[in-house]
Design a protein that fits this description.
Strand order of the largest sheet of chain B: 1-2
Largest sheet of chain A: none
Largest sheet of chain B: 2 strands, antiparallel
Radius of gyration of chain B: 19 Å
Distance between the termini of chain B: 33 Å
Order of helices and strands of chain B: HHHHHHHEEHHH
Largest interface: A-B, 48 and 53 residues
Order of helices and strands of chain A: HHHHHHHHH
Number of domains of chain A: 1
Oligomer: heterodimer
Amino acid sequence: MGTPAAIHPIVILLAAIFTSNMVLANFLGMCPFISVSNEYKTASGLGKAVSLVMLVTTILNWFLYHYVIAPLGLEYLRFILFIVVIAASVQIIEMALDRYLPELHVKLGIFLPLITVNCSILGISLFMVIRDYTALQTVFFGLGSGLGWWLAICALAAIREKIARNKLPIGLGGPGITFIITGIMALAFIGFAGTLMIQ
Amino acid sequence: MDQLKLIFKRNLWNENQVLRQILGICSILAVTNLMINTLVMGLGLIFVISFSSLTISLLRSFIPHRVRMITQVFIIAAFVILVDITIQAQLPEVSRALGPYVGLIITNCIIMGRAEAFAQKNPPLLAMADGFLAGVGYTLVILFISFIRELLGFGTILGFNVNFAGFETWTIMVMPPAAFFIIGLMVWAASAMQLSRQQTQKPAPPASSVGQQASR
C-alpha cells in the first residue's frame, strides 16, 4: 500500500471490481441490489444504468470538488453539491438517451430515476474524495465500481432465478435467503483479497 | 394517543424498517463491526429522521408536488451536514471509522420512505414521533447485529473486554459476510414469526399463498 497517487489506475480498476466490490465489501447500493435482483434481465439493465451513471457522476464530482469546493473551502457543503450533481446528471442522461438512443432508454427507463437514491453513487464520490484520487485514477475507479456492481447484481440474479423453484423453510424466501446468498458471494469475493493490495 | 400507540407498534415491530421493509440496509452493514460506531450512527440517524420528518411535515403544504423529492433531499442533507460536523468535532476517531457512511445517511431509504409515506400527509408532531420511532427501530436492529459481531469478532462489548480463557475470536465476524448472514437470519426469524402469527389468527391459508407472501 503506497501513497494514493502511486497506485496504478489499472490496479484501482481491478480492485474496484473484485477486492473492494461496492456491494460485497462496502455494502453500498444494497436496497436495489436486494429488491431488483429476482430476474436476470432487469438486474442486468439496472447494472448497466448504474455503471453509466457512476462513471459520469464521479468524474463530474471530481472536477467539482477540486475546482470549486476545495478552493472555496466549501467542504461541509459537499454532500448537497454532490447530490445535486447526481440528480442533475441522471436527469440529463435520461433526456440524452431518450433523444439519441431511444431503444436503450426504453430498456433502462424505469431504473434511471431510482438511481438518484442509490447509495453507491454518492458513496463512490465520497470515497474518491477521502482516498484523494487523481483525475485519471477517478475515471478508472468510477468505471471499476460500476462494473463491479453490475457483475455482482447479475451473479445474484442468476442464482436467485435458480433458487426460485426450490422449496425453502417458511419465511426464509425473498429477502432472507437473498442476504444469505449475498453473504456467501461476499465470502467468495474475499478470495480475491490477496491478489491486490489497496484498501 | 391511540394513533401514537399504533405508530409505536408499527415502527418497532410490525413494519420494522429493517426487518420487515428491508430498507436502509446499506449503511447498516458497514458500521456494525463495533458497537460504539453503531451507536453513533444510530443516534445520528434518529436525529436526522426526527427533524427532517418534522420539517417536511411543517412545509408540506408549501412544497409543490413535482419538486418534492429534491426538496426532501435538501432538507435531509442539511441535517446530515449538522450531524457530520458535530461528529467530526466531538468524536474525531469515530468520524474516521465511519468514513463516508455518515454522509450516506442522506440516501438512506428509511428517511425518504418515512417522508414520502407519512410526514407529507400528517401533522408535524405526529410526523416527528413517527420518524423518531422508525429511527429507534432501526437503531435497535443495528445494535443487536453489532453486539453479536463485536462479541464474537473481538471478544468485547462496547470496548470492554469480556474475553475468557479458551475463547477464540471469530475472524469471520469482523469481515463483511458475517453481517449478511446475521441480517439474513434475523429477517428469516422476523418473517417466520409474522407468518405463523397470521396463520394462528386466520384459518390456515393454502400453502401456495404462504409461498407467495414469503417470496414477495
